[in-house]
Amino acid sequence: MAIQWTRDLETGIALIDEQHKELFDRVNKLLAASSEGRGKEEVGNILKFLEEYVVTHFADEEKLQQEAGYPEFAAHKRLHDAFKNDLVKLKEEFEASGPTLRFVVLTNKIVVDWLMKHIAQVDKAFGKYLRKA
Ligand SMILES: [Fe+2]
Question: How many structural domains is the chain composed of?
Fold first, then answer.
């Protein structure tokens, strides 16, 4: 199962939309590699890239929000921080057990569900604000 990018997920901010698409692509690679039973090292490398990419992406979003004086900045940043903590838990599970079925299920729950919801609601709201500003 893969996640599909659709235009209704666009925030209207080119940099952010490009990064979201890249995130989708990487998440799909992670899901595919772990579902197809590829080695721990290969799946681990994808997971590591994803974690680093998320940090960069969140930092870029937060910078744009601060520059624009976005009133929901603090709340939005809290959501990012909570997600980063969840990613740490996912990584711990991976390090303990490798790319198991449980890891795939957890990835879907922690990463896929969150990403779709966050982009569709919270990031789009920020995009709307920024385009008006
Ligand atoms: Fe965000």
Answer: 1
